[in-house]
Amino acid sequence: MDGSASARLTPDLHQLLAEKARSFSYAARFLPPNQRDATRVLYAYCRTMDDLVDEPAPGVTPADTRRRLGEWRSWLEATDRRDLAPPEPVSLAVALGDVIERHDLPPAYLTALIDGVESDLCRVRMPDFPALRRYCMLVAGVVGLAMCHIVGVRGQAALAAAASLGIAMQLTNVLRDVGGDLQRDRIYLPADELARFGCSEESLRRLAAAGGRVDDSFRALMRFQIARARACYDRGLTGVWLLPPETRTAILSAGRIYRAILDQIERNGYDVLHRRAITSGLVKAREGLAARALVALWGGRPVAGAQTSYHELLDDEVDNWCVVDLPLESRGVGAEPQPRSL
Description:
Layout: H1 2-7, H2 11-20, H3 22-28, H4 33-54, H5 62-77, H6 90-102, H7 107-118, E1 124-125, H8 129-150, H9 156-176, H10 178-183, E2 186-187, H11 191-196, H12 201-210, H13 216-238, H14 245-267, H15 281-298, H16 311-321
Parallel strand pairs: 1-2
Helix pairs in contact: 2-4, 3-14, 4-6, 4-7, 4-8, 5-7, 7-8, 8-9, 9-13, 9-14, 9-16, 13-14, 14-15
C-alpha cells in the first residue's frame, strides 16, 4: 500500500518534509490516508530535486548535480526500472516507484520537473511571459497533473485546472522570492514586462541595495504580476469541484493558503526585495477552515459551468502537456491568463 511506501522514506526525508512542507502538511491532512502518503512521496521527490540544485553539499559542482539529475532521469525513463539500480536516496526512489505503479503516474511528468530545476543551474533570465510560463509548467504545472493521478482523476478539464493551479503557485514562489533569487543571479520576472513598467535588471539591483525601499515603478510591476497570478488561481481553483468530494478540501486549502502569500506581499508594500512574505499558522488555519466550509456547503454536487469553463484552456495546456508521448520541446503551456480580480 502507499502508506508502506511512504514509511520507507529515511528519517532525513521525513525531516525534509517537516521543515520545508508546512503549508503542504497542513493541506495534506485533509486527504484520505493512501492519497496523503502518495502525496508525501511526490512532495519529497520535488523537494529533493529542487534541493540538489539550490542547496548542493559543499564541494558539489554543477556538473555533479547534472549527473545526479541525469541518474534520476534515466531511472524514471527506463522501461523496467527494476533492471536499474535506483538513484540516491534509494528509499525515495523505491517509494516513488511504488507510487508510479499504483497510480499509473506518467514518468514524463517527473522528468519534466528535472528539466525545469536543471535549468536553474545556469544564469536565469526570462525574456517574456511565455518563457516564464513554460518554466512554471515544468516545475509545478506537471506536479498538478501528477496529483490528478494520485486522487484518481483523468478528465481533461480537471487536468487543465490542475496545471493552471500549479502555475499559479509557482508564479507566487517567483514573486515571493525576487530578492533571494536576485542574489543567486536568477531573474524570473519577464524582461519585456520589466521594461514596460520602467524597471530593469540594474534597477532591481539598485533597489535591493537601497535597503528596505521599492519605488512606484516596481510596485506597479508587482501589482500586474499579482493580478496575473490571481487569474491563474481563479482558473485552477474552479477545477476543485471536478475532483472527488473527499479530496476537495485538501486541494482547495492548498490553493487558498498559497494564494494568501500574494495578500501578504501587498501588505508588505510589494517589497519582495528585502522581505519574504510568509503565511502564519493562523492564516493557514483560517484558509483551511474556509475551504472546509465551502466544500461542506457544496457537498458532492457539481458546480454549474465547471466542465465548460475550460475549453480554451484544454486546447492549449492539456492537449499539449497531458499526452506524454509528445517530445518535451514541442509542448506548450497555454495562453496567458488575463488578469482579473477575485
